Amino acid sequence: MSSPLYLPSRRLFLASAAMTATMSPFWTVRGAYAEELTRTPAQTEGPFYPNKLPLDTDNDLLIINDNITPAVGDVTHLTGKVLDSKGNPLKNAVVEIWQCDGNGVYLHTADSDKKKDKQDKNFQGFGRFVTGSTGEYYFRTIKPVPYPGRTPHIHFKIKQGRKDLLTTQMYIKGHEGNPKDGIWKGVKDEKQRDAITVDFKKLKESKTGELGANFVIVLGVTPSE
Length: 225
Ligand SMILES: [Fe+2]
What we know:
Elements lengths: L8 H14 L52 E9 L10 E5 L10 H4 L13 E5 L5 E7 L10 E8 L2 E10 L9 H4 L4 H6 L1 E2 L1 E3 L8 E8 L7
Parallel strand pairs: 1-9, 6-7
Antiparallel strand pairs: 1-4, 2-3, 2-5, 5-6, 8-9
The structure holds fe (ii) ion (FE2).
């Protein structure tokens, strides 16, 4: 890993353990099988991209700054890669994620103002990671939960420099809410829908049932670097 700004050493261990468990060797081959890559479809940003960023925007959404109490939820090690349209890893890409807390409340005043008593104040709600030369990213977060009208999902935005490259959402494979969700169903191409619907698996090396999920993001553009 090569983003020390976002990845203190304690988390580096978590990152490497989770990646070993969930990364497919397919993606370790630079530019291999480019013709088989399915582009990650764009999805709506939705109304809850944080209107005020949290004080802590690192890649550990379970702990805000030096708090002791972690967020409530199923701990998930979320790994992945950002690839360009030819399958090459994209470095210096900013991966942003945001999602509601374990009680279904977003870090956005339009949502949280009405739900102050429900809100999990220990959940960071938003995080960032800058990719290195391998294009990999890592977050520690919670398994997303449903909220009224939506199946569980994590929002993603990929940027490079001043450019927004992709905004999308990631879903839980096999979740009963998916086929009822208008936004998930809105992706008509089955391969593209599969590309944003990922397995949340128990990590073998975790004694407390922590989960791993791996989401490879394939951009439809060939970025400048
Ligand atoms: Fe959402």
